[in-house]
Amino acid sequence: MIPFDLEYYLPESTEEAAAIFAELSEADKGPLYYGGGTEIVTMCRQQTIKPGALIDLKGIPETTALEVDGDKLIIGANVTLTELNEQDYFPLLAKVARVVADHTVRNSLTLGGNICGKLPYREAILPLLTADADVVLAGREGRRTEPLEDLFDKRLKLEKGEILVQLIVPKEELKRKSWARRREKHGPVDYPLYHMIGVQKKDQLAVAVSGLCAFPFRSAELEKKVNDSALSAQDRVDKAPDLLPGTIRNDEIGSDDYRQALWQRDLAELLKKMGGAE
Ligand SMILES: Cc1cc2nc3c(=O)[nH]c(=O)nc-3n(C[C@H](O)[C@H](O)[C@H](O)COP(=O)(O)OP(=O)(O)OC[C@H]3O[C@@H](n4cnc5c(N)ncnc54)[C@H](O)[C@@H]3O)c2cc1C
Prior knowledge:
Blueprint: E1 7-9, H1 14-26, E2 31-34, H2 38-45, E3 53-56, E4 66-69, E5 72-76, H3 81-86, H4 91-98, H5 103-108, H6 111-116, H7 126-130, E6 134-139, E7 142-147, H8 148-151, E8 152-153, E9 155-156, E10 163-170, E11 178-183, E12 194-201, E13 204-210, H9 220-226, H10 233-239, H11 256-273
Helix pairs in contact: 10-11
The protein binds flavin-adenine dinucleotide.
Flavin-adenine dinucleotide binds next to strand 2, helix 2, helix 5, helix 6 and strand 10.
């Protein structure tokens, strides 16, 4: 399956995993943490990466947790997209998880792997961005909990050897009114042209998008414009492309002009459906 030899480790705690990572790094073995393996195995097969060792995180109990604890939902980084699709705590996350890849892939694909992966889409992060989730990270220096918003800028800014352990979502964020639209070229199993979600938070609309730019994002500037009640809905939609945090993707799935036109149409619908338009 993988055309070269590598070592495999299955630690039972984050401390053990971080220690193994440090040891293997010192020995120049280029270790990688392993979640569902869908991206790692594909890239190893293509030989675009050649790790000397894989550290499987699924033996660490807290990374597979999916439970409400007081006023928070705790989601372990190794919870699969199938499990997320089947849970009732956070309906928007279930809905987003349901449209990533196909059922067989979702059985392996983990939330942590989707967030930490290299591909541009990383769609499962969208509801976590709009829900103001926190991330729990662990490494050689210990553990920290930070707002996802502070650590996610195009990618999750992990220190070398750091593990994404859990995502924590405040309970009041779990069942907010929401809207989601995923556009594909051919059908649901495709990577998306883009996937946009909108969440009503008191009188403000939170918006997050994947696939439109080279990375998923929630942008304060874009949200400010989208929520600017001094402007007509049409003006907000017209100005929105100037406030994107990156250029619009132009690839074999769709041109930048096509993506932009479709996205603006959906943004207008989002404003209408969620009460943001007059
Ligand atoms: C056929 C197919 C279709 C797909 N379609 C889509 C799609 O439409 N939209 C979409 O968003 N995704 C899609 N994906 C998934 C995406 O491409 C990634 O492959 C996937 O999200 C990786 O998840 P994983 O659990 O398999 O991660 P892995 O392959 O295990 O790891 C991916 C990366 O994350 C790191 N990592 C994993 N877990 C952690 C952790 N807890 N802490 C720190 N680092 C970690 C690994 O070291 C590695 O660098 C698809 C995948 C396949 C195979």
